[in-house]
Every structure is written in structure tokens, then in C-alpha cells.
Protein: Chaperone protein HtpG
Amino acid sequence: EKGQIRVQTENIFPIIKKFLYSEHDIFLRELVSNAQDACQKLKTLTVSGENKSELGDLKVTVSIDKEAKTLTIADNGIGMTSEEVDKYLNQVAFSGAEEFVQKYKDASIIGHFGLGFYSAFMVAEKVEVFTKSYKDGSKGVYWSCDGSPEFELYEIDKDDRGTKIVLHIGEESAEFLEENKIEALLEKYCKFLPIAIFFNDKQVNDTNPLWTRKPSELTDQDYIDFYRKLYPMGEAPLFWIHLNVDYPFKLTGVLYFPKIKQSYEIQKDKIQLYSNQVFVTDEVKEIVPEFLMLLHGVIDSPDIPLNVSRSYLQGDSNVRKINAHITKKVADKLDEIFRQNRNDFEDKWESLGIVVKYGMITEDKFLEKANKFLILQDASEKVERTIEPKEGDEKAETTIVSKPKFYTFEEYKTATSATQTNKEGKQIILYTSDPVSQDTYVKAAETKGYKVILLDTLIDTAFINNMEMKWENTSFVRVDSDIVDNLIDKQENSDSVLSKDESEKLKGLFEAPISDLHVTVEVKGLSQETAPVIATRPEFMRRMKDMAGVGGGM
Ligand code: ADP
Ligand code: MG
Structure:
């Protein structure tokens, strides 16, 4: 037997009400998006010639009536005939938006699943709809429903085109009659919607946000101003990437590289996700690779559905493509800045380095590209750089400043190939994790002609561990991990006349009486050229002892 599953409406309603959305707040986003869609559709029908009525200033108005305990969302968009009300509102999960998109290929429509309207019942005991279609000779239509499967539908007199939705707010949802609450929700979800929204006679949205505009029309100041709008407390960003993809998915947005200070806790969850200018979430974990969550800004993609769960997002193929695309864009931008203005790149490395290293650890695709622009800072060597005055700045003079020296991985290898490969032919990267306390070791290594780099940030331990696995034939050696002669394990000409056992014994003999002096004893054997036994004591330890007034010179 074959047949059709039947749904008992009395049962399905409470389920929709309860489980459709985790947050009740969402109802306002849904109703305002429907009003936006109604206006957007009318625009499209005007372009296609199907709408003959005067378009006028399209707008959405939100208002509260505390006494009547109602919240009203009104628009002068497309409106509905009574057949349409029956089709769109009386049929749960029938999306008029989807139908419209299929017919008109209108990508700016927000609606999708045909469930948004019902979110009104999460906060309202009763919903009333007053609507009139744009179509010639249309009559006004009234629809109301108290959340049960029964509705009322009849003709009324209505002068103006469009739809007014009146929510009779339930007792337990009284917060939605507070102006502050509604203002905050509009600010959160509707701030950048394309059709003007008014609340208390004030427009609440920027209908033309920066990321929807052409990069060629925008100045640096525009980007900085927009950043301020998103993060009023934030310091100016270092640079930004304007995303604009049409195929195989749609994606626009602006990502900012913020200044990251070592001493500050790193702030994640700063990127906001939009779908056709409607705010969706600021938890972008599934959309943006983890390391890029350090960035700030906005991503807008109608291909990331509004109403779906996080676990769904993870498996969504568009989301995975978007993820890969953003990673590539960021890598390309970093590469471009590095090649075009290396000085600028080096100056910003304190902030950039954290993002780059995090990315190299977690994303192999990024690692591939980042190998070319990762830079390693020399622990002490400085280079001089000439800074020319900016054009038009007459007073300023050319200055020469001293800046840290940086190597790419390749440059470091080239500079140290003769001195810093061990007996297995491995490249040794000598580093200091604390240039102050390890100062003596750094100096000793440099005197020997080695190049020591600075890896002293929070992420560096993880970075070192990961790169030892990912970079073939490379070892990181901390500069104070052994006496300078042993840092690079070179081929020894083993002319010692002592066996290994005998050497150890001899070492013990020397070490025992001076163990409290923190010396390292090395038994070289009995060759003519070198001292048979060398005892060394780190400069740092000696100074410590001297300061404490103990121990003497060696
Ligand atoms: P969706 O927006 O996903 O299609 P909704 O449940 O939010 O689903 O809305 C169902 C349908 O009701 C819409 O597609 C639209 O056809 C109609 N509708 C809802 N609100 C309005 C409105 N303000 N003006 C005109 N039509 C509307
Ligand atoms: Mg909708």
C-alpha cells in the first residue's frame, strides 16, 4: 500500500511554537523580514511591469501600543489577496518566498521555509493581519488566529496597499511591549536591512551597508568608519578584505584584521553573520575556520540558511566551500601585503603573527601559502630603515630608524645553511623564548655565528611543536637548552681515547665536588688540541650567584 502521511494540526501547532526557534526574540526578525520581502517583491514586479501602482517610499513601521498590549509591524509592500492569505498563511510550511524566488529569480528575498510567520505565536496570544494587495481592484482582507488551527478570514475596507500585522502580546511575553527591548532587537537583527525601518518615527537601519557597495567606490575612511559602527570601542583595524563572490555560492562581506595585543585576552566571536542583510548570528564557528575567528567584520551569504541548526551547518557543502574560500582570500591578501609592502607587514607582525601562526597550526591549506610569508624575528639583530616623509608633508624629514630584522623561513635557511645543520642534515632553528633571562645564551650563540630568533608569544610553544611535525627536516632548539657547543649536534671527529663508560666516570669525578655551582662538565677525551675536560658555568647563573653574594669566580 502507498499513501500520504497525515498531520494532526492540533498537535503540530504547539510543537512549532515550542521547538521551531530556540529564542523567542527571533519572531521580530521573521516578521520584519517578511515585510522587507513584501517591499522587495513589489520592486521586482515594478521592474517587470506587473505592478502598475505607485511604488512610493517603501518602508516598514514597527510600533507598540502599551494599553492595547499590541506590537504592530506594517509595510506598504505587495500585500495579499484573500486567496493569497489562504495560500500563504493558512498553509503552514508553504513558503511564498520560495515560490517567488523560483518565478522571478530574485536573490534578495529573505524568506525560505514558510515557517517564519508562525514564530509570531511564540509571543502573541492572537495575531491579526490587515492586508491589501497591489493588484488592481483588490479588496482589503482581514485574517486572525489565536494559535489554534482555527482562523477567521473576511473582506474589510482598507485604503492603503500593504500589510499590517498586529500581535496581541501574551502575559509572559510582556517584555516585547517595552520600547528598549524592541529597539535592541531591531538594532541586533535589522540594523542593515535594505528597506527603511521606522520605530518611534526614527529610522533604525542603514539600508546600504558598506559590504554591499563596490570596493572601487569606497575610501579607506569608509572602511574605518564602518568598523567603528560595528565596534564602537575598538581600535582602528590594521587592514581589511572586501569579500565578493558570485559563484559557486554568493558571499559578500568585509573582514578586518584587528590590532591584537599580547597582553590582552584574545577576543573571538566578533564576526557577524548575515543573510541578505538580516543578522543571523555572531557565532560563526562553523562558517569561518577557527583561526580566522580572530578577525572582525561581517559575512553575508544568502546561501547560509537563516533557520537551521548548527549541526546542519557543519555538514552543509556551501558552508564548507565558504570556509575554504575565506581561508584562501585571507592567505592571498596577506601574501599580497607581504610582497608589495614588506616593511608594513613587518610593522604589523605583532598582530598578524598570531593569526598566521594559528592558521599554520590548524589549516594545512593555509600553511602551504603561509610558508612564504611567515616571518621570524631575529632576537637581537636590527636593520636600519629609511623613512621618507609622506608626500605633501613639507616639515617632515627623512628619518632613519632601527628595526628588528626578520627572515622568512627560506631566508633563515639560506642564512644559516653553513652553520646550523646538524649531523643528520637537519635544519636547526635556534630560538629564545625569553630574551631577557636568556640573554647570555643568545649572545653566546650569536658570537658563534648562529642566528637566534624570538619566539616568545603565547602561541609559540604550539607553533614550534606543530612546525617540527609539518616542516620536514627541521628542529627547533631553545638557545639555553645546552652549552653553546652542543646546541647543534655536529659530526664529531671522535678521537677520544676513552670509552663511553670511562668518559662518564671521569665526568662524575669532576662534577661531584662542584655540583652546587651549576656547572656543566664536558669530557672531550685526550686529544692534543682541546682541553681534555671543560667545565662551563652559564653567565646567567654566575651573575645570580654573584648577586646573592655566594659562589666565587671559576
Ligand atoms: P517565508 O517567508 O519563508 O516564505 P513565512 O512563514 O515567513 O515564510 O511567510 C509565509 C508567506 O506569507 C510569505 O512567503 C508571504 O507570501 C506571505 N507573507 C507573510 N508576511 C507578509 C507580508 N508582510 N506581506 C505580504 N506577504 C506576506
Ligand atoms: Mg518569512
Observations:
- Residues 30, 33-34, 97, 111, 116 surround magnesium ion (ligand 2) (CB under 6 Å).
- Residues 193 and 276 are 8 Å apart (CA to CA).
